[in-house]
Amino acid sequence: MKVLLYSEGMSLIKKSGIGKTLSHQIKALEKNNIPYTLDPKDDFDIAHINTVGPNSLHIAQTARKHGKKVVYHAHSTEEDFRNSFIFSNLLSPQFKKWLITCYTSGDCIVTPTPYSKRILEGYGIEQEIFAVSNGIELEFFEQDPIKGLTFRQRFGFSAEDKVVMAVGLYIERKGILDFVELAKRMPEYKFIWFGHTPLYSVPAKIGKAVRTKLPNLFFPGYVESDILRTAYCGANLFLFPTYEETEGIVLLEALATKQNVLIRDIPIYEGWLEDGKNIYKADSLESFEQKIRGILEQELPSMIEPGYAVAVERDLANIGKQLKQIYEHVMEL
């Protein structure tokens, strides 16, 4: 059983969460001794497709035409396409139709969470859908105080500075407008957002937010994973104010580094992330401000260890085992 792992346009998506999934899948399969190829011209038994471009659909259709099995990985939904780029809300109904065309070209579908599975089922898709986390490479994101010190030195923060970090594209859905507003409300804390999107592709209000000049607000842009993990190790809080996700790989990265984490209280996280039990949640600017102060001033109990346990459950070795079961299942269809 040999698997084709395919992601279209990696040069365009490598800085996004979807771009990270390919490397996660490679490691997950290697940890479980599952043969794979990245070349569609190679011989393979199963095509595992991560993207929804025209070439991705072509490969899925061609594979099935030649008697091969197709596992389509549903990373995107209409819901998380909205409030992203210019005209995204206008185009979202057409995007949904295209997603359905792509996803139903597979023998089965994999998606990161039970929440995204419910969304896809709501589209009327009849293929079997499996919820499997994107996973996390625990060894790479291990907490390391030396890396934390490197982060503070690199970005000019003192040992006394209390630093709130976030990671994501410059899009409204990620909560970037709220992040900037929180920086305005709490000048005593430092706020740093990692990630980048060309400003010509997003609404003017996003560009205005990114250009905001505050002494405690920083937008260093996209950084590679080895630098990003130093931030996870050295910041005081990872803030994830996103309004819609199918999972959120950066959230798992923060949990894996034993970082304090505060997320928006949205349906995706119901059932596996519980406020005050393994994470902290907020649902308004006021509650975000309150929780940020409570966490940074150590007025709230630490959720670091129970949060880390969530990441451990999603270690790539475990994800590989789940994918192997799905591959074996689809080969029998």
Automatic annotation (TrEMBL):
Domain of life according to the entry: Bacteria
GO molecular function terms noted in the UniProt entry: glycosyltransferase activity
InterPro entries: Glyco_trans_1 (IPR001296), Glyco_trans_4-like_N (IPR028098), Glycosyltransferase_grp1 (IPR050194)
Glycosyltransferase in keyword set: yes
Residues covered by the Glycosyltransferase subfamily 4-like N-terminal domain: 42-139
UniProt keyword terms in alphabetical order: Glycosyltransferase, Transferase
Name of the featured protein: Glycosyltransferase, group 1 family protein
